[in-house]
TrEMBL record:
<dbReference type="InterPro" id="IPR051668">
    <property type="entry name" value="ATG33"/>
</dbReference>
<comment type="similarity">
    <text>Belongs to the ATG33 family.</text>
</comment>
<keyword id="KW-1133">Transmembrane helix</keyword>
<protein>
    <submittedName>
        <fullName>Uncharacterized protein</fullName>
    </submittedName>
</protein>
<keyword id="KW-0812">Transmembrane</keyword>
<dbReference type="GO" id="GO:0000422">
    <property type="term" value="P:autophagy of mitochondrion"/>
</dbReference>
<feature type="transmembrane region" description="Helical">
    <location>
        <begin position="209"/>
        <end position="229"/>
    </location>
</feature>
<keyword id="KW-0472">Membrane</keyword>
<feature type="transmembrane region" description="Helical">
    <location>
        <begin position="84"/>
        <end position="101"/>
    </location>
</feature>
<feature type="compositionally biased region" description="Low complexity">
    <location>
        <begin position="162"/>
        <end position="180"/>
    </location>
</feature>
<dbReference type="GO" id="GO:0016236">
    <property type="term" value="P:macroautophagy"/>
</dbReference>
<dbReference type="GO" id="GO:0005741">
    <property type="term" value="C:mitochondrial outer membrane"/>
</dbReference>
<feature type="region of interest" description="Disordered">
    <location>
        <begin position="148"/>
        <end position="180"/>
    </location>
</feature>
<feature type="transmembrane region" description="Helical">
    <location>
        <begin position="56"/>
        <end position="72"/>
    </location>
</feature>
Length: 234
């Protein structure tokens, strides 16, 4: 490779490191705190999809910077194999590799896509209660006829002008169905509260790790940037 091509590869590598540092910093400063607020207010996974996209972008950037610094060091002349190329190569890998310590949290955060039923469960279906007067229509009719017959036989004992007694209604049996009491949602509230608390703790830990990784990538970018500028200028 010619000197111009190697220099171009070095510049691409430095730029990739800078973008990697910016991506990790943006996730730790902007996206993760936003997701923490979403968890505290409502169960949502909109922002976590953006974090997963940011992880993919960071993976591409660290792969690009590592490849560029490796090629630049390999094809540079002997007197131009500067140590900063190795520092940038190793620093980029270690900075992004530090984010892999969040793998246990990442597996749990994938469950952040909670079904709607968990966030706001539908009330338990209640069987419709059929009035006793309908279910026992036949029995009531029979009772009415029976009582009416008795009233007709005793009509002569009632005073003139009085209104005959209204038919007696047979009371509902003791074992008749009644409306069930509403199901308590205390267990559901406890489950959602514990779930949110666990997600918040994991996200706070994720934020801290990504912030440290961004700092490491930023330091590596600074070293490589100074090396490339000094090499090109001098």
């Amino acid at each position: 490779m010619t000197g111009t091509c190697v220099n171009s590869i070095k510049i691409i590598g430095v730029g990739s490191l800078g973008l990697l540092s910016g991506s990790l910093a943006y996730q730790s400063i902007k996206l993760i705190p936003q997701l923490i607020e979403e968890v505290s207010s409502s169960v949502s996974n909109a922002t976590y999809s953006n974090i997963r996209l940011g992880k993919f972008i960071s993976r591409v950037l660290v792969g690009l910077s590592t490849t560029c610094f490796y090629l630049a060091y390999k094809y540079s002349p002997g007197n131009e194999k500067h140590p900063y190329l190795l520092y940038a190569l190793v620093g980029g890998i270690l900075s992004y590799g530090y984010t892999f310590t969040t793998r246990p949290d990442d597996k749990k955060l994938k469950e952040f896509a909670v079904p709607k039923a968990r966030a706001s469960p539908a009330p338990a279906p209640v069987d419709p209660v059929v009035p006793q007067s309908v279910t026992d229509h036949d029995d009531l009719g029979k009772s009415y006829i029976h009582v009416s017959d008795e009233d007709s036989t005793s009509a002569t004992s009632t005073p003139n002008g009085s209104v005959p007694s209204s038919p007696k209604v047979v009371p509902a049996p003791a074992g008749a169905a009644s409306a069930p009491a509403p199901v308590s949602d205390i267990e559901h509230e406890i489950d959602v509260s514990l779930f949110k608390k666990d997600m918040q703790n994991r996200l706070v830990r994720l934020k801290s790790i990504y912030l440290k990784a961004a700092g490491g990538a930023g330091l590596t970018f600074l070293v490589s940037f100074i090396g490339v500028v000094g090499e090109l200028v001098l």
